[in-house]
Specification:
- The protein has one helix and nine strands, in the order αβββββββββ.
- It is mainly beta.
- The chain has one domain.
- The chain is about 10% helix and about 40% strand.
- The strands form three sheets. Strands 2-1-6-7 form a four-stranded antiparallel β-sheet, with no helix packed on it.
- The radius of gyration is 15 Å and the shape is elongated.
Length: about 130
Protein backbone atom coordinates (compact mmCIF):
# COMPACT_ATOMS: atom_id res chain seq x y z
CA UNK A 1 0.00 0.00 0.00
CA UNK A 2 1.22 3.51 -0.83
CA UNK A 3 0.06 6.76 0.71
CA UNK A 4 0.91 10.25 -0.40
CA UNK A 5 0.11 13.88 0.29
CA UNK A 6 -0.87 15.50 -3.03
CA UNK A 7 1.05 18.55 -4.20
CA UNK A 8 -2.22 20.45 -4.59
CA UNK A 9 -2.98 19.84 -0.91
CA UNK A 10 0.51 20.98 0.09
CA UNK A 11 0.07 24.12 -2.00
CA UNK A 12 -3.34 24.78 -0.41
CA UNK A 13 -1.79 24.59 3.09
CA UNK A 14 1.02 26.97 2.11
CA UNK A 15 -1.51 29.38 0.59
CA UNK A 16 -3.57 29.26 3.78
CA UNK A 17 -0.55 29.99 5.98
CA UNK A 18 0.51 32.82 3.64
CA UNK A 19 -2.94 34.40 4.02
CA UNK A 20 -2.64 34.60 7.81
CA UNK A 21 -1.32 37.60 9.83
CA UNK A 22 2.11 36.26 10.83
CA UNK A 23 4.69 37.66 13.24
CA UNK A 24 8.31 36.89 14.07
CA UNK A 25 9.01 36.96 17.81
CA UNK A 26 12.36 36.50 19.57
CA UNK A 27 12.93 34.35 22.64
CA UNK A 28 15.71 33.65 25.14
CA UNK A 29 17.05 30.16 25.72
CA UNK A 30 14.75 29.93 28.77
CA UNK A 31 11.85 29.43 26.35
CA UNK A 32 13.26 26.10 25.06
CA UNK A 33 11.22 26.22 21.84
CA UNK A 34 11.26 23.08 19.69
CA UNK A 35 9.09 20.90 17.42
CA UNK A 36 6.52 20.49 20.20
CA UNK A 37 5.88 24.25 20.42
CA UNK A 38 2.21 24.69 19.51
CA UNK A 39 1.27 28.28 20.36
CA UNK A 40 2.89 31.63 20.95
CA UNK A 41 3.35 32.47 24.61
CA UNK A 42 5.25 35.29 26.27
CA UNK A 43 7.13 32.79 28.47
CA UNK A 44 10.81 33.37 27.79
CA UNK A 45 10.17 36.11 25.22
CA UNK A 46 12.99 38.55 24.78
CA UNK A 47 12.80 41.99 26.35
CA UNK A 48 15.04 44.98 26.12
CA UNK A 49 15.75 48.12 24.13
CA UNK A 50 14.72 47.77 20.49
CA UNK A 51 12.34 44.86 21.05
CA UNK A 52 8.58 44.99 21.66
CA UNK A 53 6.63 42.00 22.95
CA UNK A 54 4.97 40.05 20.16
CA UNK A 55 7.74 40.74 17.65
CA UNK A 56 7.31 42.11 14.16
CA UNK A 57 4.83 41.42 11.33
CA UNK A 58 6.17 39.21 8.55
CA UNK A 59 5.73 39.80 4.84
CA UNK A 60 5.59 36.82 2.47
CA UNK A 61 8.36 37.18 -0.12
CA UNK A 62 8.22 33.85 -1.92
CA UNK A 63 6.07 30.76 -2.19
CA UNK A 64 5.77 27.87 -4.57
CA UNK A 65 6.36 24.19 -5.17
CA UNK A 66 9.72 22.66 -6.04
CA UNK A 67 10.40 18.93 -6.45
CA UNK A 68 7.17 18.06 -4.65
CA UNK A 69 7.82 20.37 -1.69
CA UNK A 70 5.60 23.41 -1.10
CA UNK A 71 7.42 26.31 0.52
CA UNK A 72 6.88 29.76 1.97
CA UNK A 73 9.52 32.44 2.53
CA UNK A 74 9.51 35.85 4.17
CA UNK A 75 11.21 39.22 3.95
CA UNK A 76 13.89 39.66 6.60
CA UNK A 77 12.54 41.22 9.83
CA UNK A 78 14.63 44.05 11.28
CA UNK A 79 14.49 45.32 14.83
CA UNK A 80 15.85 48.88 14.81
CA UNK A 81 18.14 50.33 17.48
CA UNK A 82 18.32 46.91 19.08
CA UNK A 83 20.31 46.75 22.31
CA UNK A 84 18.74 43.56 23.65
CA UNK A 85 20.76 40.60 24.87
CA UNK A 86 20.09 36.89 24.61
CA UNK A 87 17.97 36.12 21.53
CA UNK A 88 18.14 32.34 21.01
CA UNK A 89 14.99 31.55 19.01
CA UNK A 90 12.77 33.12 16.37
CA UNK A 91 9.16 31.95 16.37
CA UNK A 92 6.81 32.42 13.41
CA UNK A 93 3.25 32.56 14.67
CA UNK A 94 -0.28 33.64 13.72
CA UNK A 95 -1.23 36.88 15.51
CA UNK A 96 -4.92 35.90 15.67
CA UNK A 97 -4.86 32.20 16.59
CA UNK A 98 -1.37 32.21 18.21
CA UNK A 99 -0.56 28.96 16.34
CA UNK A 100 3.16 28.47 15.84
CA UNK A 101 4.14 27.74 12.22
CA UNK A 102 7.89 27.65 12.67
CA UNK A 103 10.74 27.89 15.16
CA UNK A 104 14.32 28.78 14.28
CA UNK A 105 17.02 27.95 16.82
CA UNK A 106 20.01 30.25 16.31
CA UNK A 107 22.26 27.67 18.02
CA UNK A 108 23.60 30.33 20.39
CA UNK A 109 22.43 33.59 21.89
CA UNK A 110 22.47 36.64 19.62
CA UNK A 111 22.46 40.26 20.73
CA UNK A 112 21.51 43.57 19.27
CA UNK A 113 24.62 45.72 19.41
CA UNK A 114 22.80 49.05 19.55
CA UNK A 115 22.26 48.93 15.79
CA UNK A 116 19.68 47.18 13.62
CA UNK A 117 19.22 43.46 14.27
CA UNK A 118 18.09 41.63 11.12
CA UNK A 119 17.32 37.96 10.80
CA UNK A 120 18.13 36.85 7.26
CA UNK A 121 15.81 34.10 6.12
CA UNK A 122 17.18 31.67 3.51
CA UNK A 123 16.90 33.26 0.07
CA UNK A 124 15.91 30.05 -1.69
CA UNK A 125 13.46 27.30 -0.83
CA UNK A 126 11.49 29.11 1.84
CA UNK A 127 11.33 28.76 5.59
CA UNK A 128 8.14 26.76 6.00
CA UNK A 129 8.28 23.60 3.90
CA UNK A 130 5.66 20.89 3.49
Amino acid sequence: MNAFFPITAKRALIDFIASRPLNAALFTEKAKLDESTAKYSTDGELSGPGYDAGGLPLTVSTDGVDAGVAYLGFSNPTWTNASFIGARYLEIYDRETLITYGVIDFGAEKSGQGADFTYKFPAKGGVIRI
